[in-house]
Amino acid sequence: MKTDPTSEHSGMEIGVYSFGEIAPNPHSGQIISSKQRLEEIIEAAKIADEAGLDVFGVGEHHRLDYAVSAPAIILSAISQVTNRIKLTSATTVLNTVDPVRLFEDFATLDLLSNGRAEIIAGRGAFIEPFLLFGCDLGKYDELFEENIELFLKLNACEKITWSGQYRSALHNAEISPRPYKKNIPLWIGVGGNPNSAARAGRLGAGLAIVILEGDPARFKPIVEVYRETAYNAGFSPQDLKVAITGHVYISDTPQQARDEFYPYHLNYWGNPNQPSNRNLHLSREDFEKVTGPETSLFVGSSQEVIEKILRQHELFGHQRFLAQMDIGGMPFKEVAKNIERLATEVAPVVRRETKK
């Protein structure tokens, strides 16, 4: 069984991820069940795997308008119906989860998937996990720092002695099971916070940047901070990985893509449950502007999406691109079609152009 997609090609890794959002279809008003949403996510992963994409991810939310609260369980189900695609959380809210339990869950996933498990760790955009799991929101950053440092120790050692401020101490504790491979690849997900990028560099973790709007060039200093901090911490440049993530919609022509995607984009950002700084209602005229050639929104023909990915690669030199497609109540047939287009029309060109 193949376990490393990049063994078949060089160049940028291309993948997709889902948050399992449950939103009404903007055309019909229909809302699907959580059960159907999870079934669609598993089917999307199968399509991505069979089409030759490299990575599939699921995010974590703890609220009724999202279907995924337990990424390791969803990814374990996916591992049994796929053969080669890497499986990652996108993201794990690390400051509200016990690092030992997280490690054991993903080590189990790694065994079930023959070494395909990864984690993108983030600090979370919503407060629900802190309320549900009894974590102090006022210690938002301190909890993340302690948990990620403990996770890295768990990743490195079968037995561990450790003490911290927010979790009970470990005394020669056996950490079981061990992953299929030596360790579980860890990325840190960031928005525009240079301190988060510096943390990823200091720890030698991968850097996954979320860019959903605006000029992507404003994130170049984030990548520079990451690489400089990692270099100063003694990490080799070839060991550092950068991923860019964003919303993607591909259709036959640039205008058709904009016409088709606009209702889903509006439905997603107009959701009153979004954090207040994200809740907005774009006019169609403004939407045309935010999908322009110099922006971060990957909406257009396959050629337009290719050009945007390559333009960002010139800025960041990143090794991975992850597309979020299933937003705003988009029906699954459109999601499936977009995954196929990404895999067959976009990925081969991007890989060829970024091949070293």
Give a quick rundown of the structure.
This protein has helices spanning 34-51, 71-79, 99-112, 128-132, 140-156, 194-203, 220-232, 254-269, 284-290, 302-316, 332-354, and strands spanning 13-18, 55-58, 86-89, 92-93, 117-122, 159-162, 170-174, 186-190, 206-210, 242-250, 298-300, 320-324. It is an alpha/beta fold. The protein has one domain (5-354): Alpha-Beta Barrel (TIM Barrel), CATH 3.20.20.
Keywords:
TIM Barrel; 11 helices; single chain; eight-stranded parallel β-barrel; alpha/beta; 356 residues; disordered N terminus; 16% strand; two-stranded antiparallel ribbon; 41% helix
Structure description:
The protein has eleven helices and twelve strands. It has a single domain (5-354), classed as Alpha-Beta Barrel (TIM Barrel), CATH 3.20.20.30. The strands form two sheets. An eight-stranded parallel beta barrel has the order 1-2-3-5-8-9-10-12, surrounded by seven helices. It has a two-stranded antiparallel ribbon with strand order 6-7. It is an alpha/beta fold and 356 residues long. The protein starts with 12 loop residues before the first strand and ends with a helix. It has helices spanning 34-51, 71-79, 99-112, 128-132, 140-156, 194-203, 220-232, 254-269, 284-290, 302-316, 332-354, and strands at 13-18, 55-58, 86-89, 92-93, 117-122, 159-162, 170-174, 186-190, 206-210, 242-250, 298-300, 320-324.
